[in-house]
């Protein structure tokens, strides 16, 4: 059981309070920042001793049922105490089979990332935008205890963390992404866990959060429908992959989508979707290296699948060339790319030495950022034409709103609008307004149902 936090200190205030199972989570704000406090139910000493006995008797079981608990209680002759504290005892027995004292942060849907290291465990909270890593009252006391948790987490993914393989990146059964470091290549062991919501976000969710406006959502939707080539750039943790996944889910349902990632992260709700992942060799040898399947091989293979869309998460370099090839073949191409600004992105393109004429295959570049105190925002949208990159829309921080700086009604002014019109033969401005109105209506009503959105748009004349 975790020690209760002494939260009566001057300057501490409760920002948010909610339950994760039987545990209470209290988010405190103070002069130095935030603290995430887990308060778990308390057992009196006698009941705690009974819990230890039950735990020992049931230690060989990966899962336990209520019948198992009552069976163990009868064997130990502690039925009366178990009956009195059954709910709490069951909580701790299940916690042991979860992630131990880390279980609450793993189960908390509002925790986005977890940093596990000696000392306080740190988290990133989905509803805190004016702080990055927040300390918790969950403390790992020693390197031995830390390694115990790291080994347990790695085993859940069928991985072995050891001096021979000191850095492991893997996916947990719940879908969380883990980077675990044994310690030989760093000062001490640690792990970073990137968690994902139980249900993948869709375009209605991120418009509701203010990430982009209904008009920009409708415009990017039409770019995807027209199978355009879009790159989404931004720093780490800026919402790039989330935006790309929400756009891919808007592709027409009869179109085939292939995604390529180093570590599984993208989750789509569509049927015609094949996720491909980089495979690293499991042992160190010259022969094993040949079993590696990298980005470029996966992208080349995707081109032979008759996919209408090929998307790459965290494109780094040479694989971007294959995306341009896919765009040249008529595939819709999307990718996320690290870069803090358009200037950074252009510099990396120069380093790739792409032929200048191939850049005309690129329809647009979206710049994403996590804005302190606000949240995730599409801050700039550029289109590419004869004069290079031109600003089409931007986010104005003073009013927290998105502004389109070109005339979408004039296809000679907006390159993207002209390209959409050439492919889809729509009255593009009318279609943008129609879809934006539907998106705004559903967001205002509180709906987050993607099927309702698609039905409202494609079901209307």
Describe this structure in words.
With 461 residues, the protein is of the alpha/beta class. Among the domains are: 45-100; 203-458, Rossmann fold. The protein is 34% helix and 26% strand. The chain has 16 helices and 18 strands. The strands form three sheets. The chain has a nine-stranded mixed β-sheet, with helices on both faces. A six-stranded antiparallel β-sheet has the order 6-5-4-9-8-7. Helix 8 packs across helix 14. The longest helix is centred in the last third of the chain and has 18 residues, at 428-445. The chain starts with 12 loop residues before the first strand and ends with a helix.
List the topology elements.
Elements: E1 13-20, E2 23-30, E3 33-39, H1 45-57, H2 66-76, H3 79-84, H4 86-96, H5 103-107, E4 111-116, E5 119-125, E6 134-140, H6 143-156, E7 167-171, E8 177-181, E9 190-194, H7 203-208, H8 214-225, E10 229-234, H9 240-248, E11 257-261, E12 273-277, H10 286-289, H11 295-302, E13 309-315, H12 319-328, E14 332-338, H13 342-352, E15 364-371, E16 375-385, E17 388-396, E18 401-404, H14 415-424, H15 428-445, H16 450-458
Parallel strand pairs: 10-14, 10-15, 11-12, 11-13, 13-14
Antiparallel strand pairs: 1-2, 2-3, 4-5, 4-9, 5-6, 7-8, 8-9, 15-16, 16-17, 17-18
Helix pairs in contact: 1-4, 8-14, 8-15
Low-pLDDT ranges = 4-10
Mean pLDDT comes to 89
CATH topology of the domain at 203-458: Rossmann fold
CATH superfamily of the domain at 203-458: P-loop containing nucleotide triphosphate hydrolases
Helix content: 25-40%
**CATH architecture descriptor of the domain at 203-458:** 3-Layer(aba) Sandwich
Strand order of the largest sheet: 12-11-13-14-10-15-16-17-18
Radius of gyration: 25 Å
Please tally the β strands and state the result.
18
Distance between the termini: 60 Å
Principal-axes shape call: elongated
Structural class: alpha/beta
Count of separate DSSP helical elements: 16
What is the CATH class designation of the domain at 203-458? Alpha Beta
How much beta, percentage-wise? 25-35%
How is the main sheet built? 9 strands, mixed
């Amino acid at each position: 059981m975790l020690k209760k936090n002494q939260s009566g200190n001057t300057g501490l205030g409760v920002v948010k309070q909610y339950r994760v199972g039987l545990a209470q989570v209290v988010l405190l704000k103070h002069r130095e920042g935030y603290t995430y406090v887990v308060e778990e139910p308390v057992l009196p000493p006698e009941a705690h001793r009974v819990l230890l006995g039950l735990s020992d008797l049931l230690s060989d079981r990966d899962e336990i049922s209520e019948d198992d608990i009552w069976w163990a209680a009868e064997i130990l002759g502690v039925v009366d105490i178990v009956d009195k504290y059954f709910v709490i005892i069951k909580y701790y027995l299940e916690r042991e089979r979860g992630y131990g004292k880390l279980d609450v942060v793993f189960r908390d849907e509002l925790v986005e990332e977890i940093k596990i290291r000696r000392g306080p465990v740190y988290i990133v909270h989905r509803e805190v935008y004016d702080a990055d890593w927040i300390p918790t009252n969950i403390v790992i006391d020693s390197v031995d205890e830390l390694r115990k948790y790291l080994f347990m987490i790695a085993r859940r993914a069928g991985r072995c963390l050891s001096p021979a393989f000191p850095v492991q990146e893997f996916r947990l059964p719940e879908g969380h992404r883990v980077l675990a470091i044994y310690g030989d290549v760093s000062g001490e062991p640690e792990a970073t866990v990137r968690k994902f919501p139980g249900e993948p976000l869709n375009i209605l969710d991120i418009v509701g959060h203010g990430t982009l406006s209904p008009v920009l959502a409708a415009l990017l939707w039409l770019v995807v429908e027209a199978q355009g080539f879009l790159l989404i750039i931004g720093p780490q943790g800026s919402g790039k992959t989330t935006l790309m996944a929400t756009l891919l889910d808007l592709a027409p349902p009869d179109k085939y989508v292939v995604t390529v990632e180093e570590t599984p992260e993208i989750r789509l709700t569509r049927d015609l979707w094949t996720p491909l992942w980089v495979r690293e060799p499991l042992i160190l040898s010259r022969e094993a290296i040949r079993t590696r399947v990298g980005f470029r091989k996966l992208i080349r293979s995707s081109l032979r699948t008759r996919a209408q869309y090929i998307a790459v998460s965290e494109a780094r370099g040479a694989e971007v060339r294959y995306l341009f090839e896919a765009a040249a073949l008529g595939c819709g191409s999307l990718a996320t790319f690290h870069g803090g600004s358009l200037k950074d992105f252009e510099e990396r393109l120069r380093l790739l030495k792409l032929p200048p004429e191939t850049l005309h295959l690129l329809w647009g570049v979206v710049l994403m950022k996590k804005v302190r105190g606000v949240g995730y925002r599409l801050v700039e949208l550029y289109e590419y034409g004869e004069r290079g990159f031109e600003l089409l829309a931007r986010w104005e921080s003073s009013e927290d709103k998105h502004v389109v700086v070109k005339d979408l009604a004039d296809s000679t002014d907006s390159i993207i609008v002209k390209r959409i019109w050439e492919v889809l033969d729509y009255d593009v401005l009318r279609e943008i307004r129609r879809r934006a109105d539907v998106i705004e209506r559903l967001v205002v009503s509180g709906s987050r149902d993607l099927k309702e959105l698609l039905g409202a748009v494609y079901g209307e004349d």
